[in-house]
Amino acid sequence: MSDTTYPHSYLYGWTTIVTLATFVAGLLSILEGAGFITGLFILPDIPGGCILVLISALFGTAVVKGKIDRPGWISFTYIACLLLLVFAGCAILVEGGDYLTLIMEGEEADIITIISSAFIWAGILAIPLFFGVSKILYRCSCGGECNE
Amino acid sequence: MVPLSLMRTGDKAVVRAIQGTGHLAKTLGQLGIIIGIELTVIQKANQSVIVRIGESRYALGAGAASMVLVEAQK
Amino acid sequence: MLLEPGQQAWCWSKHKNERNMNDIRILLAGNPNVGKTTLFNSLCGVHQHTGNYPGVTVEIKEGKRQVNEHSITVSDLPGTYSLSAFTPDEQVARDALLTSRPDAVVQIIDATNVERNLFLTTQLLEIGIPVVIALNMCDLADEQGITIDAECLEKNLKVPVVRIVARTGEGIEELVDTIIRVTSSKTPGNPRELEYSHSIATHVTEIGAFLGSHTSLPGNLSPQYAAIRLLEGDECLEKTLHDQGLVIPFIDTSDPAERDGIAEDILLARYHLAEEITTCSVRCTMGRVMPADLIDHVLTHRIFGIPIFLSCMWFAFQLTFSAANPFLVGIEQIFGYFTEVMNSIDMDPFVRSFLADGVIGGVGSVLVFVPNIFIMFLLLSILEDTGYLARAAFVMDRLMHSIGLHGRSFIPFLIGFGCNVPAIMATRTLQSRADRIITIITIPFMSCAARLPVYILFAGVFFGAAAGNVIFFLYVLGILVAVLSALIFRRLVFKGEPSPFIMELPPYRRPSGYAAALHMWYKGREYLKRAGIVIFGGVLVVWALATLPAGVEYGSAESLAGIIGEAVQPLFAPLGFNWQLVVGLIFGFIAKEVVVGSLGTLYGGEEMLESSLAADPTLTPVVALAFMVFVLLYLPCVAALGVIRQEMGSWRWTGIAIGWGILMAYIVAYIALHAGSFIIGA
Ligand SMILES: Nc1nc2c(ncn2[C@@H]2O[C@H](COP(=O)(O)OP(=O)(O)OP(=O)(O)O)[C@@H](O)[C@H]2O)c(=O)[nH]1
Ligand SMILES: [Mg+2]
Question: For chain A, which residues make up each domain, given as ranges?
Answer without folding.
Answer: 8-139
